[in-house]
Amino acid sequence: MDIAVQIFQIIFYITASVVAVLTFVKAKNGLLNSVNTEYQKKVMERLALLSDELWEEFDFSSENHWSKDDTLNEVLEKIHKYALENKHAILSKEKGFHGVPLPKKHIEMIAMVERLKSDPFIPEIIRRKIVTLLDDRLNSTLEAYITVIEQYQEDLTKGKRWSNFDENKSFIHNDIVSIMSKNGLGITELQGAVQEIRKEIQRYYESFNPIKK
After folding, report:
1. Cα–Cα distance measured from residue 144 to residue 165, given in angstroms and rounded to the nearest whole number
2. Average pLDDT over residues 63-90
3. What is the DSSP track for 119-133?
4. Of the candidates 64, 77, 51, which has an alpha carbon nearest to the alpha carbon of residue 165?
5. Which of 3, 12, 77, 131 is least crowded, fewest Cβ atoms below 10 Å from its Cβ?
6. Is the C-alpha dihedral spanning 197, 139, 191, 58 positive or negative?
7. Which residue pairs from 188-195 have beta carbons closer than 8 angstroms and sit at least 24 positions apart in sequence?
8. Which of 10-24, 96-110, 178-192 has the highest mean pLDDT?
9. Sign of the C-alpha dihedral computed for residues 131, 112, 177 and 84 taken in this order
10. CA quadruple 199, 70, 83, 172: dihedral, nearest 10
11. Could you please report the per-residue DSSP string of 165-194?
12. How distant, in Å, are the alpha carbons of 19, 49, 74, 121, 213 from that of 104?
């Protein structure tokens, strides 16, 4: 009888232990699934927002469409204001220009890139493509602005191009666009790159669609 009781107790404890372990595993998996589902939800929401943000620049109805970009005006207004206030000193070589002013949009884009680099809700493959594109764009824009604006400042120092600042803007704009295009980052190329990133986002969405698997 004692042996039977002992055997029963052993079986009982083993069964209870197995049930406890299985219950724990099930609860843990349930918690992990819940956390993972919530995380994926945030990823999807972030990607949807990111897709819209990237496309704004190429959306004709958007206030952020590239044709409404006032970045060059912002830079030239600072240069022209300084030039007019110091015209005599500039022409007599008593004063010079103090580098190329960085537009607000450029600074904002630098901050955006840094934020994207550690955004926990952007999948790595998509993050790499966006950061690479924005880094290339920043570098090319900086190269274009420094090259063209410094030449413009040099011309002003030599007494050239003072007669029509508004007309100068058109030439400067064309020169900047030319450098960007030469670097493969003109408007058409940028739009194509953004479209490819949006397609990558779509592929990420579709990877969770059981019908397409």
Report:
1. 19
2. 94
3. -TTS-HHHHHHHHHH
4. 77
5. 3
6. positive
7. 190/57, 190/58, 190/133, 190/137, 191/58, 193/133, 194/54, 194/55, 194/57, 194/58, 194/133
8. 178-192
9. negative
10. 60
11. HHHHHHHHHHHHHHHHHHTT-SHHHHHHHH
12. 63, 22, 8, 26, 45
Question: In angstroms, rounded to a whole number, what is the distance separating the alpha carbons of residues 152 and 173?
Answer: 12
Q: What is the largest CA-CA distance in the chain?
A: 117
Structure tokens at 130: 């966006």
Domain assignments of the chain as residue spans, ordered by start: 70-207
User: Which residue bears the tokens 């204001």?
Assistant: 81
Confidence of residue 94 (pLDDT cuts 50, 70, 90): very high
Count of CB atoms situated within 10 Å of the CB of 50: 20
Question: Is pLDDT above 70 for 34?
Answer: no
Tokens of 204: 């990420």
List Cα–Cα distances, 176 to 39, 136, 142, 181, in angstroms: 42, 15, 10, 9
C-beta of residue 91 within 8 angstroms of C-beta of residue 159: yes
Residue 35 token pair: 């956390």
Of the two residues 23 and 45, the one the predictor is more confident about is 45
Can you give the C-alpha Rg of the chain in angstroms? 30
H or E element that contains 80: helix 71-85
Contact present, 65 and 58 (Cβ < 8 Å): yes
